[in-house]
Design a protein that fits this description.
The protein has about 350 residues and is an alpha/beta fold. Helices cover about 40% and strands about 25% of the residues. It has helices spanning about 35-50, 55-60, 105-110, 125, 130-145, 145-165, 175-210, 230-235, 240-245, 265-270, 270-290, 310-325; strands at about 5-10, 15-20, 25-30, 65-75, 80-90, 95, 100, 115, 215-220, 255-260, 265, 300, 325-330, 345-350, 355-360. It starts with a strand and ends with a strand. The structure holds adenosine-5'-diphosphate and magnesium ion.
Length: about 350
């Protein structure tokens, strides 16, 4: 589902732009501060209804202007689906999909599966489990139509349970929440586990090329020790502790995926550049899975492509990215840095002080 057209109005330093994209590779060039990341951010905002740089829409609207508007056309098997999003400084937000007002962000996300890679992306490995859950759930979301609903229900139940924990005297008073919570938690953990198991061979195939010198072990942790205990039993055994802490210490909200070399966490062994390559391997695997299994195409937003990677790694990476058959948006400061890497089917855009021109 490539983006064929994008119209930007008052987004960061981009006052106005109408762009026609290549269905495969789009390279965005320009000096520091010209607006390359802003362009990627605009695409990201359309796909997820939020930014990866700021939680505050007011920071994103062009200074001294009342609103930003984004409009895109997405090619879904030959049919152009229009998507529009407006945000005002007063906090109003209007989303239109196929000319109809949409209320759920998940509707937007269904139309535009995005993978973002920036110099900060190694947070996926070195940061908190929350990042890795988000990674995993991205894939499960597209794989299982009911996932979103189940997960939303679990989050609500957990909130109610945590509030009840603070007031109740005996475990029995929590049963009301726990019966459903345990049932749904087991369901969602199975979904996550199955998805991750299927993803592992795809990740391994890529890292055989990216990091051939390492043997990396990957495992899924469902959020509680389920080897000889059910979640309900865990809740019963940990009632006093949870009550003291005031929140639920185990469950799918604590799930994680773990990567190790020998007995060390990956983030302790690899260099920043190597970690970045591993993040690429993870995200490329998800793109391939989406393509092969879910028959959907992914859009990759890659900010600062050449940062921290040597020439030979860039070459291997470019080969894999092209093979992934996703639509790509790649920002680099100087086009010459990657000229030989993406020769085929490539459009080049140059950004200067927020003005974007298609130069190739
Ligand atoms: N809300 C805003 N209104 C106007 N300009 C902005 C706004 N937010 C950021 N900028 C400016 O937009 C420019 C684009 O930055 P950025 O997209 O990060 O550039 P690049 O990725 O090309 O280095 C910066 O110079 C920044 O100061
Ligand atoms: Mg930038």
């Amino acid at each position: 589902m490539p983006i064929t057209k994008l119209v930007i109005h008052q987004f960061r330093n981009i006052h106005s732009a109408t762009l026609h994209f290549n269905k495969q590779i789009n390279v965005i060039t320009g000096d520091n501060g010209s607006g390359k990341t802003a362009l990627l951010e605009a695409i990201y905002f359309l796909g997820l209804g939020r930014s990866f740089r700021s939680h505050l829409s007011n920071r994103i609207i062009t200074h001294e202007h009342p609103e930003f508007i984004l409009f895109a056309e997405i090619d879904e098997q030959g049919v152009q689906v229009p998507i529009g999003l407006k945000k005002t400084r007063k906090g109003e937000s209007i989303l239109k999909i196929n000319t109809r007002i949409a209320t759920k962000l998940a509707d937007l996300t269904q139309h535009l599966p995005l993978q973002l890679i920036t110099p900060d992306s190694i947070n996926l490995l070195s940061g908190s489990p929350k990042n890795r859950r988000a990674f995993l759930d991205w894939g499960v979301f597209y794989h299982d139509p009911l996932f979103y609903q189940t997960w939303a229900r679990i989050k609500r139940l957990l909130k109610q349970r945590n509030a009840a924990l603070k007031q109740c005297k005996t475990y029995n008073e929590l049963q009301l929440w726990d019966n459903e919570l345990c049932f749904l938690s087991t369901e969602i953990s199975d979904q996550r586990q199955r998805y991750f198991q299927q993803l592992i061979p795809l990740i391994e195939k890529t890292i055989a090329d990216f990091l051939p010198e390492f043997s990396i072990k990957m495992s899924f942790f469902c959020g509680w020790d389920n080897t000889n205990k059910s979640l309900q039993q865990y809740f019963i055994d940990n009632f006093e502790r949870d009550k003291q802490l005031g929140y639920t210490t185990a469950g799918p909200q604590k799930a994680d995926i773990r990567f190790k070399i020998g007995s060390y966490p990956l983030a302790d062994v690899l260099s920043r550049g190597q970690l970045k390559l591993f993040v690429y391997a993870l995200r490329l695997a998800q793109g391939l899975f989406l393509n092969n299994v879910n028959n959907k195409k992914c859009v990759f937003l890659i900010d600062d492509f050449s940062s921290e990677l040597d020439q030979s790694k860039q070459q291997i990476l470019a080969k894999h990215i092209i093979q992934s058959d996703a639509q790509l948006f790649i920002s680099v400061i100087d086009k010459n840095h990657i000229e030989n890497l993406f020769e085929q089917q490539c459009s080049v855009f140059h950004v200067k002080h927020g003005k974007i021109t298609n130069i190739d």
